[in-house]
């Protein structure tokens, strides 16, 4: 007596179709297309996780630059001055300070300015 794999095949197909729920048109109903686009969606998700990091860094730099200009300096001078002064603070924290605690951010700007002028 031979073993037939119908149950496993159906289970496999259902897993892909369930994952493809919400895809537009035939992509959510046809197994072959659902499988292809499920794999493609994984590729997009992987790439998206990398892009998110880039996007956040761009956002932080934009916020720091806006705050730095209000404080009377430029982004480039601020970062360079902080590096010369030996202040080790990342862009995420600087951006948060620029938005939520401008007084402290301004102090960092003054530190950077004095480090640049001292050189």
TrEMBL record:
SUPFAM superfamilies: Ribosomal protein L20 (SSF74731). PROSITE patterns: RIBOSOMAL_L20 (PS00937). Keywords: Ribonucleoprotein, Ribosomal protein, RNA-binding, rRNA-binding. GO terms for biological process: ribosomal large subunit assembly; translation. It comes from the Bacteria. GO terms for cellular component: ribonucleoprotein complex; ribosome. It holds the Pfam family Ribosomal_L20. Gene3D superfamilies: 6.10.160.10, Ribosomal protein L20. InterPro entries: Ribosomal_bL20 (IPR005813), RIBOSOMAL_L20_CS (IPR049946), Ribosomal_protein_bL20_C (IPR035566). GO terms for molecular function: rRNA binding; structural constituent of ribosome. Belongs to the bacterial ribosomal protein bL20 family. Binds directly to 23S ribosomal RNA and is necessary for the in vitro assembly process of the 50S ribosomal subunit. It is not involved in the protein synthesizing functions of that subunit. This is Large ribosomal subunit protein bL20. It comes from Mesotoga prima MesG1.Ag.4.2. The lineage of its organism: Bacteria, Thermotogati, Thermotogota, Thermotogae, Kosmotogales.
